Amino acid sequence: xxxxxxxxxxxxxxxxxxxxxxxxxxxxxxxxxxxxxxxxxxxxxxxxxxxxxxxxxxxxxxxxxxxxxxxxxxxxxxxxxxxxxxxxxxxxxxxxxxxxxxxxxxxxxxxxxxxxxxxxxxxxxxxxxxxxxxxxxxxxxxxxxxxxxxxxxxxxxxxxxxxxxxxxxxxxxxxxxxxxxxxxxxxxxxxxxxxxxxxxxxxxxxxxxxxxxxxxxxxxxxxxxxxxxxxxxxxxxxxxxxxxxxxxxxxxxxxxxxxxxxxxxxxxxxxxxxxxxxxxxxxxxxxxxxxxxxxxxxxxxxxxxxxxxxxx
Length: 312
Ligand code: ADP
Ligand code: MG
Description:
The protein is α/β, with parallel strands linked by helices. Helix content is 38%, strand content 24%. The strands form 4 sheets. It has an 8-stranded mixed sheet with strand order 3-9-2-1-12-16-17-15, with helices on both faces. The site of adenosine-5'-diphosphate (ADP) has 14 residues, from loops.
């Protein structure tokens, strides 16, 4: 049986720091990313790809605001779906081309993915995640009154909307994703952490929140019974005492060691924190191992030559 790996792509796989995010820039980055992923397929892995959408959904939200007088703005869940669609399209096209060039008989397909969250999640009581454009205080107050948004002043840079970042509970389309992976196709799913939805007796409905993409990737990996969770970012390894005296890069560590380092506060919230948490959850819940490394080191890390590996 081929091993199934869920690959969680960091922001730099699609937009590099200082880039504006033009279509051409994103295509070029995605081309490089697709080459790395096709190398995994060539290596015999079944691959599911997930990715962030921060800069992309940020730009879509600016378009909603700037165009609000001309066309109706769409809510955050719909903007998330738009970003899944366009990034999925770019990824699946680049991947299809790479797979074909490598002589592999595999296609790539994108699933618009909903992720159920608990509406009682404590994150909803205190929204902290800034999304979309900066506003003047006047406009911020208007939006607060008109839409019930929560707005916060952001370090002297202007006003911004903040939303909750709840924990992912269930990948709604998991069964379909699993079935497609079995055909040998590369599946792109849960983009941007998935579209947060409330699941009730009445059915599904979208929520104006965002889910961390590494935690959503972990949920996805569990639900498709993946063997490996591969988190690709812009650092080759996680460290303790990161950027401080005594900085030590981590190789293979157990769940217990990782939990101790977490408790000691070595992994920053909003960056390495959720990656380490996702890695720990995946391995603790029966995954073979989780890996945190950089995009260009994916193959080497799977072969055991680098990366931070979280094992039982
Ligand atoms: P991504 O877009 O891949 O999710 P993030 O910026 O969210 O990227 O997370 C990666 C960043 O985490 C690295 O660039 C690094 O600066 C930061 N980081 C924070 N704590 C650590 C740590 N303990 N070890 C390594 N990197 C860390
Ligand atoms: Mg991140």
